[in-house]
Design goal:
The protein has helices spanning about 15-50, 55-65, 70-80, 95-120, 125-130, 135-145, 150-165, 165-175, 185-190, 195-225. It is mainly α and about 230 residues long. It has one domain (about 15-225): MetI-like fold (Orthogonal Bundle). Helix 7 runs antiparallel to helix 10 (about 195-225). The longest helix has about 35 residues, at about 15-50.
């Protein structure tokens, strides 16, 4: 594994800071997107469906919402390790490994909050839509539109869970310079070296990015509320 960088933020070249920032955003955006694609349908199914094992599956999702990232990192690392079941894929210490871990972290959050959002809707709305001749996909689309504000909150929660995550990223990514180092793992590295000024600078950058993204999503959410 390539040696970890020993330079501080003040001497760290701007291209490296931009690379770390873009990698952080890219990995978290992809993980959040995949979590949304998986969690939105599952949450809707858990909210509207009636099938054997539903309560058990809902309990698993709710448990996953509080799953410690280091536990996820340990599980993914075991699966992707060279001697593990998926070791032949050579994904350990790659950005893909971080994405996999972050999806496992964010997916239950999105699914659980989607379930709560859909269950909060008036149950008569579903019957009205079906009574008006709406197909199942049309009905689900209309329900998603009706619950769009809490669904945006689910998106923000999922993104927040992964952009600020460090344990799993460190374990499966290795914090390799120019390859898998993201903002959170860089902050841990600088703190471990006693470079608190550099760590604070990176932390402020992370907070600023997180705030701007959530501010944009909140603006969209509140704009929809005013309509």
């Amino acid at each position: 594994m390539e040696d970890l960088c020993t330079c501080s933020l003040s001497t760290r070249p701007m291209p490296e800071i931009l690379q770390i920032t873009s990698l952080s955003l890219g990995i978290s955006a992809i993980a959040t997107g995949i979590s949304l694609l998986l969690g939105l349908p599952l949450g809707t199914l858990l909210a509207l469906g009636k099938f054997p094992g539903r309560s058990f599956l809902l309990s698993v999702v709710n448990t996953g919402m509080g799953l410690p990232p280091v536990v996820v990192g340990l599980f993914v690392a075991i699966m992707l390790w060279r001697s593990g079941p998926l070791g032949d894929w050579k994904l350990i210490y790659t950005p893909t490994a971080i994405v996999i871990a972050q999806v496992i972290i964010a997916f239950p959050v999105v699914a659980g909050l989607t379930t709560a959002a859909m269950q909060a809707l008036d149950p008569r709305l579903q019957l009205q839509l079906l009574g008006l001749g709406a197909t199942l996909p049309q009905m689900v689309g209309m329900l998603w539109r009706e619950a769009r504000l809490p669904l945006l909150a689910a998106l923000m929660a999922g993104f927040g869970a992964v952009i600020s995550e460090v344990g799993a990223s460190m374990m499966v990514g290795g914090n390799i310079r120019y390859q898998t180092r993201v903002l959170t793992t860089a902050i841990v590295l600088e703190t471990g070296k006693g470079e608190f000024e550099s760590a604070i600078g990176l932390a402020i950058l992370l907070l600023a990015i997180t705030f701007l993204i959530n501010w944009a999503l909140t603006w969209i959410q509140q704009k929809g509320l005013r309509k």
